[in-house]
Amino acid sequence: MPWVTVAKLEKADVQRAFPLMQLQRKDLTLTQWASYAHGIIDQNENDEGGFLVARDRLGVILGVLQYQAFGTRQDARRLTVSNLIAHGHFQKQRRRIALALIQALDDTAHRLGCRQVRIELPEGDQRALFGGLTSLLCNSGPRSPHISFKTTPDEVRRLRDGSS
Prior knowledge:
Layout: E1 5-8, H1 14-24, H2 30-43, E2 49-55, E3 61-70, E4 78-86, H3 91-111, E5 116-119, H4 133-140, E6 148-151, H5 153-161
Parallel strand pairs: 4-5, 5-6
Antiparallel strand pairs: 1-2, 2-3, 3-4
Helix pairs in contact: 1-2, 3-4
């Protein structure tokens, strides 16, 4: 069994993902998170969006990302990613978690017929929570030759300029 496995977040596990989401937004309450997550899950019964979670061997959630597919033409479909969090005590752990999420994201984009994955990152202090995931996402994908990983224009500028 791999150290990290990734699967869709089910309603029964929404509360288990709350501590990670609270890392991104300290003022977020469990009630707010549960309402938001259940709404996203309910809206995406057709599997066009939702959350992917990375778990360790004990089932503890160590990574979360939110995704949504857009577009109607197969060649123009895009998968947009937000709320990406990979938590580990060491950089090597965060990297393993992030790589597992990236592989699952790539598989999801391929399954949904998306040719591009667009990563939306937060501004300001929240960006630090990504702990190098931006460059990892840009440099690790795509595994499928038809998918290109992109970030928002501001993020591309920051990566090019070397600022964080």
